[in-house]
Amino acid sequence: MVDLFTPKPEHKFTFGLWTVGNVGRDPFGEPVRVKLTPVEIVHMLAEVGAYGVNLHDNDLIPIGAAPAERDKIVEGFKRALKDTGLVVPMATTNLFSDPSFKDGAFTSNDPRVRAYALQKTMNAIELGVELGAEVYVFWGGREGTETDASKNPVDSLKRFREALNFLCAYVIDQGFDLKFALEAKPNEPRGDIFLPTTGAMLGFIGSLDYPEMVGVNPEVAHEQMAGLNFVHHVAQAWEAGKLFHIDLNDQAFGRYDQDFRFGSVNLKSSFFVVKFLEDVGYQGSRHFDAHAYRTEDYDGVKAFARGCMRTYLILKEKAAKWNQDPEIQTLLAEINSDQDHISSILGTYNAARAADIKARSFNREALGKRGLAYERLDQLTVELLLGVN
Fold first, then answer.
1. pLDDT tens digits along 5-22
2. How far, in Å, CA of 213 to CA of 168, rounded?
3. CB atoms inside a 10 Å sphere around CB 280
4. What is the mean pLDDT of residues 375-385?
5. Cβ distance 22 to 292 under 8 Å?
6. Candidate list 26, 43, 59, 173, residue with the active-site label
7. Known active-site residue 59
8. What is the per-residue pLDDT for 125?
9. Residue 341 is a catalytic residue
């Protein structure tokens, strides 16, 4: 019997070296799993059926490694990619772990730190391009404050803009075929991180010298930990033509950054994320920036990775059924009905339309009394997800 929920390369499921390679350390506990090499992680991802692997520079190459060591590591990693057929669609720079970045990288008050951050990122961009990455993500994990006495936020935004403009120009000058994706997060590890939401990032992109090169990488947990609706942020990014990459995981509202297995907490929200991506025909990677529970050994990590992909495929099938369900589609048609062909006078302004709208007589009381059947629509959605419809 064919398993309809087995991942295939065309599904473009990816994981980071830092995700399945997570050793289970947290602020209160030591590692519970031995550290795997990048080559071992690549083979594990191939075993569970992933399409690709993404990485920070120091996930692969230790910070401060000599050139000869760097080249040897990259050669072995490339060989593992070739042996398994995995690809590297996205890369990024670790600008948050090393103590030099304790007060930020691009927004640090110290110009030496800002210059070092540019140097590190240029080198990491070259690594990403060498491995085949087409998207380069920027998560400013330390770009923020614990006290507003420490930084002028206007100066910080100017510094961040200056760094991105510099790096865009560098990519163009090198002839790299690379797009940048900015990843927002409201807090953790800093008390407050600059540009904390996808919407804030989208507004910021318009101020850059090369806005066409820069999009966003929204993450489920980063929006939901602030109590925001992730689907709406993804839709805003898509509508703006800026959804360059996406990070899928799960998260309980108001908690620390949990990075749970996709679909394990907010199943209905996860369903609508999948439905949106499939309905609009998103062609990018489905990247799982998530971690197995700390309780797991590496068999559990494999179960976690398979679970992320399997849940996505199950929800993809559910989305197709939702789109074909007669009762749901009848309700949607009624909800969106265009009585009196009113939509013909809406849209782009012109004087005739304005005059027509002003002259119309609307039954305000009838509009207010009309039931919209959203309760029934939502219940049908829940029943579909529960497998009884």
1. 999 999 999 999 999 999
2. 7
3. 13
4. 98
5. yes
6. 59
7. yes
8. 98
9. no
Active-site residue, from 3, 11, 43, 56: 56
Distance CA 44, CA 300 (A): 12
Q: Does residue 211 have a cis bond before it (omega within 30 degrees)?
A: no
Provide the token pair at 149: 């006495």
Task: Locate the domains of the chain by residue range.
Answer: 9-317, 326-386
Q: What is the pLDDT of residues 320-352, one digit of tens each?
A: 999 999 999 999 999 999 888 899 999 999 999
- How far is Cα 375 from Cα 373, in angstroms, rounded to an integer? 5
Dump pLDDT digits (tens) for 285-304.
Answer: 999 999 999 999 999 999 99
Distances (CA, A) of 180 to 5, 52, 277, 296, 356: 31, 18, 20, 34, 45
* pLDDT digits 0-9 by tens, 154-180: 999 999 999 999 999 999 999 999 999
pLDDT digits (tens, 9 = 90+) for 60-86: 999 999 999 999 999 999 999 999 999
d(CA 107, CA 117): 10
Predicted TM-score (pTM) of the model is 0.96
The three-state DSSP-derived secondary structure of the chain is: CCCCCCCCHHHCEEEEHHHHCCCCCECCECCCCCCCCHHHHHHHHHHHCCCEEEEEHHHHCCCCCCHHHHHHHHHHHHHHHHHHCCECCEEECCCCCCHHHECECCCCCCHHHHHHHHHHHHHHHHHHHHHCCCEEEEECCCCEECCCCCCCHHHHHHHHHHHHHHHHHHHHHHCCCCEEEEECCCCCCCCEECCCCHHHHHHHHCCCCCHHHEEECCEHHHHHCCCCCHHHHHHHHHHCCCECCCEECECCCCCCCCCECCCCCCHHHHHHHHHHHHHHCCCCCEEECCCCCCCCCHHHHHHHHHHHHHHHHHHHHHHHHHHHCHHHHHHHHHHCCCHHHHHHHCCCCCHHHHHHHHHCCCCHHHHHHCCCCHHHHHHHHHHHHHCCC
CATH entry 3.20.20.150 includes domain 9-317: yes
> pLDDT tens digits, residue range 213-270?
999 999 999 999 999 999 999 999 999 999 999 999 999 998 999 999 999 999 999 9
